[in-house]
């Protein structure tokens, strides 16, 4: 019912304001599909043409970036990436800075993996071949604030996205992330309005990784979202939408 109402809303706004709205391209994280951004897709439809990139097919972060760029709206667009989507967004900034009018990095990092993180990824890929459900079960407490462990809708959504994508996508995405390059030395070259946002309790990409990006990106702002873990877009959608709305207001059309 909510989805149906939102669709009507999106269609209505698209007819009324279709010429003046900027394009906003959203990039999901590990084992996420477009549903991870559902609150933003609906909530920002009155101020942007929102679409969600597919990061499930390519085998490298550079390949994901190239694939999204080849399917992106013609011309320039604002770009927001969540976690793995943030790694891809930073790669897109390297590949096609002239097409990106604004950059939002949410619950992510510019750094490459530590050796331990990389080993953990390969171990998870190995386990997922025989125990995919268990691997997904173990991801959830790392992604969410403990207060959200009992949120049945949220936990079911994470399971549903993961199960629809499956073990092969998990393996591809983990290998791609393990091999990603260090984006930190490129941050000072970013020239578009930039927002860096992080759940206060994000245990996967903690606040310090966001603070150091803000220190490097000229003019970037930092928003720390209370009562949220790593999945701020789902855990605190209203606060995230408010931050994204303010950022979009400063992005050139
Ligand atoms: C994600 O949510 O995309 C991943 O947890 C990021 C990562 O594992 O580095």
UniProtKB/TrEMBL annotation:
Protein name, per record: Alpha/beta hydrolase
Keyword Ribosomal protein attached: no
Domain AB hydrolase-1: 24-243
Pfam family, one: Abhydrolase_6
UniProt keywords, alphabetically: Hydrolase
Species: Cellvibrio mixtus
The keyword Ubl conjugation belongs to this UniProt entry's keyword annotation: no
Signal peptide: none
Gene Ontology molecular-function annotations: hydrolase activity
């Amino acid at each position: 019912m909510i989805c149906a109402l939102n669709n009507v809303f999106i269609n209505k706004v698209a007819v009324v304001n279709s010429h003046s709205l900027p394009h906003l391209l959203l990039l999901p994280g590990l084992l996420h599909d477009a549903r991870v951004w559902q609150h933003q897709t609906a909530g920002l439809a009155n101020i942007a043409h929102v679409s969600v990139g597919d990061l499930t097919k390519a085998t490298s972060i550079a390949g994901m970036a190239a694939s999204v760029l080849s399917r992106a709206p013609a011309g320039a667009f604002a770009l927001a990436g969540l976690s793995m989507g943030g790694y891809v967004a930073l790669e897109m900034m390297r590949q096609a800075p002239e097409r990106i009018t604004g950059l939002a990095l949410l619950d992510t990092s510019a750094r490459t993996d530590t050796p331990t993180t990389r080993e953990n990824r390969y171990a998870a890929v190995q386990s997922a071949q025989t125990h995919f459900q268990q691997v997904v079960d173990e991801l959830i407490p790392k992604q969410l604030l403990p207060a959200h462990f009992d949120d049945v809708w949220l936990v079911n959504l994470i399971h549903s996205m993961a199960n629809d994508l499956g073990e092969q996508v998990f393996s591809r995405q983990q290998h791609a992330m393990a091999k990603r390059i260090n984006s930190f030395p490129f941050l000072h070259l970013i020239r578009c309005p930039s927002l860096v946002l992080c759940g206060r309790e994000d245990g996967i990409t903690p606040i310090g990784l966001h603070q150091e990006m803000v220190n490097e990106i000229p003019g970037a702002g930092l928003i720390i979202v209370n009562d949220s873990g790593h999945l701020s877009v789902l855990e605190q959608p209203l606060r995230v939408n408010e931050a994204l709305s303010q950022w979009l207001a400063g992005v050139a059309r």
